[in-house]
Batch of 2 targets.
Target 1
Amino acid sequence: MSIKPLIILPDPILRQVSKPVERVDSDLRKLADDMLETMYDAPGIGLAAIQIGEPRRLLVIDLAKEGEEPAPHVFINPEILESSDQRSVYEEGCLSIPDYYAEVERPAAVRVKYLDRDGKLQEMQAEGLMATCLQHEIDHLNGVLFIDHISKLKRDMVVRKFKKLAKDKAPGKMVG
Ligand code: NI
């Protein structure tokens, strides 16, 4: 297992639409393990493959709190089958948009089908934080970021800030 570098806003890779996984094999399981290790290291509670530059429909989630046993979930080719009319608001953040948080409103519950790490078809009825996290990560697979769900004014501000940060870090810049 290895920790991979995270793709950070405004890298256009984050806007790619990820391709379905065709085979659940040992390579894919290795990628899932690397994603989990990268997520635990960050630390975060969810990570989509595109966030380490792999445009495949794969995401990992672990909602265990500090001190609890790890509870890793691997979702391959996840699809939302149903969303509740009831909505809920969570303060969201993203490993690709470090140190920025904003309240996002989404359906409070979703039913999701996916393949597990053995390639077995599964369904999950998710609510609470799991529902929010699944929707946030599935958005990543479609090139959508949580800042797309906030006001344009706030979004433009965040994007500007990260563009400036990226520019300041760009190679070739003379720093005396
Ligand atoms: Ni994210």
Note: The chain has one domain: 12-168.
Target 2
Amino acid sequence: MTDVIIEQTKEVIPKDLLLLADPSEEMIAEYIHAGTIFVAKLNSKIVGALVVLNTRPKTMEIMNISVYEKYQNKGIGKKLINKAINYAKESKMKTLEIGTGNPGLVQMILYQKCGFRIIGVEFDYFRKYYKEKIIENGIECRDMIRMKMEF
Ligand code: COA
């Protein structure tokens, strides 16, 4: 989708969009104000969002990446990730991290296509930190697959 633009924003991002990537409003509230937010816009309409956060010295993490279902699989997610990579490099980071749930095969494929590698698993992360059980692709989202890329 060539006419999609990605821009940094201080706009309030629709909650339903952020909830696609992170079903916990409580967790979103913890990073949304501290993070840097980018949106993907198509004809001035927000169709995707990206939130990155400086989590440790020289380390940035993609805290939320989401594209409305209707607009998925058209290259917008990849554009948002490339924006995160460029922004982390411009911000002189050495590492960019992302985490995804164990059922997230499409996510894991996409992140690896973009250059992330799996570095570990946080076992029972979602059972520990999320009140509600999350079911995705017919299995419980239980463990967090940690991925990173180094510059
Ligand atoms: N099997 C294998 N690969 C698949 C796939 C499938 N079923 N569906 C999509 N892909 C691949 C595509 O082939 C594409 O790669 P390509 O460009 O080399 O062909 C890539 O995955 C999708 O890329 P893109 O279209 O840029 O992604 P997107 O705009 O659909 O955004 C997400 C990806 C994850 C942001 C989007 O699906 C989303 O918002 N999901 C819900 C929220 C979420 O899970 N966020 C991440 C939390 S960790």
Note: The radius of gyration is 15 Å.
